[in-house]
Fold this protein.
Amino acid sequence: IGVLIHAIQKGKADGSIAKDVQEVETAFVLWSQITGLLQVIQRKMSIITYQYKIKQSDMFQTYFDLLERSL
């Protein structure tokens, strides 16, 4: 969590993250999101790939694209 908080602070300082973003709360939300994504990938990726033809790398790319646009 400390690494995420520091990254958010750094982003706020350089203007790449909005100044009104709450650092600690955002760090926990991001940590929770990536933990959930990793669990889905670990447990369900073969089904997702079979059913929807989505690759693991596409899941990560989509997550990081969404993340980048949201902050």
